Amino acid sequence: MIVNQANLHGLTVGYSTAYNKSFDTMQPNYQKVATVVPSTTGEQDYKWLGQIPGMREWIGEREIQSLAAYGYTIENKKFEQTIGVPRDDIEDDKYGVYSVLFSQMGEAAAMHPDELVFGAMMDGFIKACYDGKAFFAENHESGGKTYSNKGDERLSRESYKKARKSIMSIK
C-alpha cells in the first residue's frame, strides 16, 4: 500500500472500528459495585460521603440537619495506550494483522475500570476512605449510628445471606 494521507485515514478508520467494536462488546462489572460520578476537573471532592442523615417522620416544621465535614478528594488520573504500526508493514500490505491488536486494545480499555475498582476493593482492608478508616471496617458511622461492613466468616450461602442482610440494613 502506498503511504499517503487517504490510505492512512482508511487505516485509522479500520483500526478504530476494530477497537470500538471490541470495546462495545465487553461487559465490565465495576458498575455493579461502584457509583460513576462524572468529573470535569482535575480532582473530585467527595466530602459529602457519609453525611446523609436518617429519615424521620415529617411532623411540624422541617428540621435542617447539620452535615459532618469529611475531607475526601480523589485526583483524576489519565490513562492511555498508544502503539505505532511500522511503515514497512503498511507498505508491504501487512497492516491487517494489526486489527487484532487494536481489537485487544478495545477490550483492555473497556475492562480497565474493573481493574481499578476491584483493585481498590482489595486495598479496602488497609487504605483509608472518606472517614479516615479502612473502607472495610467495623466502626463506620452513618446517620449517627456505628456499623460494620467487614466480616470474617467463611464464605457460604448462609454467611452471604447474613452479610447481605447486614449491609442492606445500613441507612
Would you give an account of this structure?
The protein has 171 residues and is mainly alpha-helical. It is 37% helix and 7% strand. It is built from four helices and four strands; from the N terminus they run αββααββα. The protein has helices at 5-25, 87-91, 98-122, 157-168, and strands spanning 43-45, 73-75, 140-142, 145-147. The strands form two sheets. Strands 1-2 form a two-stranded antiparallel sheet. The longest helix is centred in the middle third of the chain and has 25 residues, at 98-122. The protein is elongated and about 75 Å long. It starts with a helix and ends with a helix.
Q: In which range does the helix fraction lie? A: 25-40%
SS-derived structural category = mainly alpha
Distance between the termini: 63 Å
Q: pLDDT average, as an integer?
A: 86
Number of helices: 4
SSE string, helices as H and strands as E: HEEHHEEH
Strand order of the largest sheet: 1-2
**Cα shape:** elongated
